[in-house]
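I'm stuck. Please check this protein.
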Amino acid sequence: MYVHSKELQYWKSEHKDLNGCQDADALDSSRGLFAVADGAGTTLFPAIWARILVRHFVDIPLMSIDPFEVEWWVRLAQDEYKRQIPDVERLLDWSVRQKAQSQGSDSTLATVRITAIDDTSSQALAQLLVFGDSCVIVGDTQTQVIESFVLQVPSEFDQAPICIPSSLKFFNRSFHRCAIISKILEPRHVVVLATDAVSKWILSGGSSGIQWNAFQEVCRQSRVDWPTFIDGCRKRKEMVDDDATALILTFKAERIGDGEPLGAENTHSHPMVRDGMVIDVIKVRKEAFEKAQQAKNSELVAIYYGDGKDLKSAGIDMADEEIKHAQQVADALKEVMRVFRQAQNTPGLTAKVEPVWRQYGHLLQNERCADNIRETLQRNGVNLALPRQFELSDPAPTLAQPGEPVVMQNQPPEGMSAEVSEQLADRLERQALQLNFLQAYRDEDDNAILAAFETIESARLRYPNLPAFGERETWRIAQAQTHRQTLQKLKRALSEGLVEEIETAYNSMLINEKSLTPDELKRVELAHRLSAAFREADDEAIVAIYNQILSGYQKFFTFTPQEQRHINAARQRREALLQIQVALKSGSLQQIANTYDPILDNYKSLTEQEKQLVALAQEFVVAFRANDDEAIVHANEKIMDSSYYWQFIAFTENERSRIAFAEASVKTQVRANMLVVATVKDQRILLEQVRKVCRVKEPYINYRIRLLQQQAKGSAENEADQEVDLQIAYLKSEVDPQQLPYFALENLINDKLIRVKIAEENQQGVSMDDFNVEGWFSSVFEEFRKYAVSNYDEFLKSNKLTDDDVEQILLLLLRRELFVTHYQNQQKPARFKSLFKQKPMLLDDWLERQKKEPAVIYTQYSSERHQRGLWLYGLLQPEK
């Protein structure tokens, strides 16, 4: 397969040139790697960070969403960022220095990686990987449908995107997650990787409101046209004023033009060149991993191991338990550091941090990667001492089986001294406290575990020597606390009735369903199903669940404005879908076009067949209403060529008649463009030229007739009235429908002869002072636009004319009128001619003499004016 790539980039208006643009793109077609990034303008050095990320992806592609693999990849990019930005300590501006130290840079990233190619079927398997609101949009030229990943609707761009930070201290592998999907690409596909401004414009439908049209409009742009296109979108308020970048990929089965061979990339075995040095990525990663192992740094072991693919290819493998422990240590370290940063410089730091340390301390107390945080915690007064642990295997009184009560076997014997009896009672009470906890532990009873734990903790004042809980018990207590907190959070969410909070709060692994009433479980189920329906944009499910809520649970739910908009939109789309389906069954093109609601654009519940039927109906109705013959014929041909004509479409009698007329008109137009009706001095005159002269001359002459009639009304002289009447009669004969084509042809022939005569006189040096066509033209043209036709633009459209057509025809008519005076001046007899009484030749006589010469050849009826007029009139009528 081959790929043609086109990079389009334009900066926001506040920047002067491309150097100010904070977007970036990079590609390597031979390895099938493509990326765009959008640096966050509110941060420092966003353009540098965006360029680093796209180049870094092409050098070392990120191939997995494993959080530790992502962190390994991001850390490499962050190291490169540190090398490229200016030395922070040397920045002169204090505010800039503070911003660099406290904030860093952020950027989104959208990528395409070709993972496999099948040349026999011309297919490529691609992995799309995205951080934030830059998008990968795949267009299908056959179905004319686009798929956008990750964001799919314009409103989603209003939310703050998850960006990749350039500073490690702001990176959280649990939060900074990417989305990933696989897609089969074929030569019918076009892929656009775009930053948010362009992506949102496409998904909004652009100028037309139709996503496919907007997608195509972007793909058609060249690098030269891109700035003008973006400026136009901004001026029309269709696109936000932001950096606009699009990387357009067109796939072909064979090389066409400057297409390049498409490669695939599945490993990090490709060497990376940096600073002139060739680097073996896997080898360097292996060495770093082994160094981390030798240093017993579990956090770096987990990060360098990542998803394990690189190291396994280098012969290194870790047992699942080892890598799981390293990941647990890394996660524990991250959580303790997160809580400490939040509590730092706030009152009650120790009270906020110590519970977290008690929860994770058993994992971190002996880890070298936690040396710094332990020292920091101690310096801030956090008690890192972990109590002595006891285990379930410690000697203890006999335990009952799960579900059975624990029976105390030792009681103080009678006759024992009070002191000894008290000591024994204390020992038995301590033993009972432990047994109660162990019984709850065995029974997996969260409430009993927490009750026993709280009792033991409160008893430590009386019994300082009570053993501390072991690792397993500590973990189980923390789990029970988590379960209780989760349940409390869910109960609060249920009381508030917020769908998203209910869905987020409910965790089947952490909540015992027995602790919820059937009514609460039902509300949880409805919230979970409705949230899933929102995410999947499943309107049918949204409407069904919403109706179920209305039927008995309405008082328990409070919908946010955004959720209510989703619900209302879903109901509107479902209603619009039902209406268009009824219209489609009717087969009426007008009803289909009138019923279709743009809210259904790219609606997945509308089948491809339904979409195509709607498109056919819309195209035909638009052409029908515009009275556009060519568009009607084209739309009808598409309908006839489709597989839907005989089964789904029912033309009305009026539509059939209009189609027949349009087809005849188009045939006539084709003939008019080809048929030569006369030749003047080897210059051909086409029937189409005659048609255009007729269309312009008729309103022009009728306007002159109206002017003469007004003149006649205001005149009191009979002789003048007779002259005007004669002019009106002659002009009316020129616009007689059957003779108008004849006079139009004569106008064309006369004009060519006059222009030849003018050219000859110019060569002979004859003065043309009395022949000023240009001086009169502007006023004649303006009168025609304002008074000869009621709506000039509609006149052009309905007669298939252009401004240039009208100008040339008016010049033709004006040239004939003004040339008479000039010709007569040139024909005044010289003195010797007057002696012999030789009369000057009139212009009409001269023109007729020219037409009798071989210089003018009529195609048909050259000797009979009336027949020639009827012939031309017939040719201009639509074919039957």
Summary: The two ends are 51 Å apart (CA to CA). Residues 91-97, 388-410 have pLDDT under 50 and may be disordered. Residues 389-469 form one domain.
